Amino acid sequence: MGRLFWKFFLSILLAQVTATIGIGGTFWLKERAMRLQQAQDIDSSPPAQSAIDAAAATLQFGGADALRQFLDQMQRHRVMAVDESGHDILQREVKAALLLQARHLLGQPDKQRVVREVSAADGHRYLLFLPFSEHFRRFFPGGMVPPLADGKPNPAPGPAYDGARPPAMRGLPPVPIYSPFRSVIPIVGATLASLLFAFLLAWYFSRPIRELRQAFEAASGGDLAPRFGPPGKHSDELQALGYDFDRMTGRLRSLMDGQTRLLHDVSHELRSPLARLQAAIGLAHQQPDKMAASMERIERESVRMDKLVGELLTLSRLEAGALHAMGEDISIADLIDEISGDARFEAASRTIAIGVAGEADVTVAGHADLLGRAVENVVRNAIKHSPEGGAVELEVGVQDHGQSVRIAVLDRGPGVAQADLKAIFQPFFRAANTEKTEGHGLGLAIARHVVQVHRGTISAHNRDGGGLCVEILLPLKQD
User: What pTM value is reported for the model?
Assistant: First the structure.
């Protein structure tokens, strides 16, 4: 278990225990307040009303002395009789809150038999009521029973009472005996449940993070194998993070493989002109009379290597994001006119016709030199693979309701195998049927990166009847 697990565990546990103690404490305080309130409330049950009626009749017809004797002999119902000065007739203690509540209930019509004010023959007026706890504490012989109002302990049920419940409470469930531990049990149970759930949640969150850490350690050691599957229907953000890590390592693995392959291809491409350079230099040393031909060969191979290095630098800068589309306004019509004119000059030696179909007097935003080089690479690739006396067509038109422009380059060459249509845009890729064609396989790769820099797309498909169509879609500049 790492530190993160314990941080999750203790944080969740602290939050849940705090909530449990807060809720439990609230209920405990509420229950305690209710018990205290019940100890001061006035009983309104039918037996209590009967006791009040009996005490009132005794006071009216027998006077204060008869009431004292009557109340002193009562065991079941200890009715309070309070005079105008707030003193009980039996000199029992009367709580101010209880007396205030009794006087408040005196004026309520539905409490006429609960609290009564009776005048005695001696002129004094007595307030008669029965405290709630005085009646019910006989049902708690083994529990926490408060003392009587006069300070004496609660008497045990006598023969007249005999443990029987009042008629109004017969048939009801037994009154539970209060215990101070009953309020603690829910808190302890909730704390144990919080402990369990905190452990499960901490383990649930820390496990994928621990697996991610192990995956990072493996990746730092060169192991880029996938470790997490794709996220499922009910996956969470941590599982999605693992899948993103797999995609990242997959991309790194692809880049490393591409780098290795690029080094291999560059070495292969440079080996041939270097070998020819060495041969030309050796021939010049051995046959001075052929120095001019050897120098011409050396110059040609040097230009070829310079071109290869230039294309590699351009490609590497595009892949690294060092070249960005500038905010130039590029006229597609002017761009196509310039490229088609250069293409006609290059294709004239092989009698290949260059045609332009469609019009697109529109503007795109970007880098004019880069975009022109990308389209030129596609056109020159089409010329290179076209047969003698063939034709290359450029189609231009606006699409997507004026949102983009389409530039298509079509030839009647050998085409490309269906499985290689996407691979032709990779560096140094040479299709099986074009291995003898001159070139390094970088032109279409550069074109793909340039089009992507301009937020466009490039794709290829074989034409019906033979040949290849390379299609470029570029977003138009919005006013």
Answer: 0.48
